[in-house]
């Protein structure tokens, strides 16, 4: 099977863009992210990019349909569409007699946390010299090493087709394929800082940067505050001076931020979808900037931002409970309360009245 055949199949199965990395490009990777520990005999990594629909950001931009970005925008893409594509491609490769691993999800089983630290009391290496399970592939770095685009100041992968509006799936295989060159222009990130200035959690540092060498190329991005992003992307504002708020489950110090219309963070969609901020800085603002400069190939008839951004007034905020339950959880909760009330009522009834109540 040639590289061209693989790319054509990947596109037919649903990928928007495809690149190939050779395994030597991962030399120097942190062991917990080195795919060569997953498949020591791997010869190639096929990296596929799947566009997030610009339309999936429309509902948040308008302030009326937040779930679509978390669900169709990336949840369903990550947990349904990408797995199907990588599985189909792996079937074809294994039919040719080469092992292929479909990697189309983000795993909560990973041995490191969001900051890259080993998770304590989570897992241990199966033998000396091996990493702590599970390995976590850094998908954006994989895409960079397969030539799909560059890493922007926001640490997002920026591609010439879709800018930051992309999710990634990977196939690791023993099949040897000719690698694509690393992307070298035209340069997409011009350090405009729209991502920094529009991130509601101030999670992308304006001056502190991280520098790494990837396959011999120097790459630099702004330092990310994962904790700040974790709070802000779910639409929360942290309260100070002992004020109480129930926006985030399990915390008593958060209220809805001005860019969340929800009294409490709504339930996750497709396991991970809970981006109430609608990637306001790292994706929306960056996409608007890149489209404005005319550097993206996926062009639209109308600009994305068509009016002034809205802002919710929470100055009269009072904590409320339960609103962050899903509708089915709310249904179970109300059934539980009904049963409790029935049981209490039964205590006061005669035998025949109890019988009538059961018959209801
Ligand atoms: S918003 Fe500007 S600085 Fe930030 S990643 Fe995009 S192009 Fe680079
Ligand atoms: S997801 Fe939201 S909070 Fe996190 S970096 Fe992007 S814009 Fe900032």
Structure write-up:
- It is built from nine helices and eleven strands.
- A hairpin with a 2-residue loop joins strand 7 (204-214) and strand 8 (217-224).
- It folds into two domains: 3-291, no CATH class; 335-360, no CATH class.
- The strands form four sheets. The chain has a four-stranded antiparallel β-sheet, with helices on both faces. A three-stranded mixed β-sheet has the order 9-11-10, with no helix packed on it.
- The chain is of the alpha+beta class.
- It is globular.
- The chain binds iron/sulfur cluster (2 copies).
- Residues 152-154, 189-195, 285-286, 289 line the site of one iron/sulfur cluster.
Q: Which labels suit this protein?
A:
9 helices, binds iron/sulfur cluster, 16% strand, 360 residues, alpha+beta, 3-stranded mixed β-sheet, 11 strands
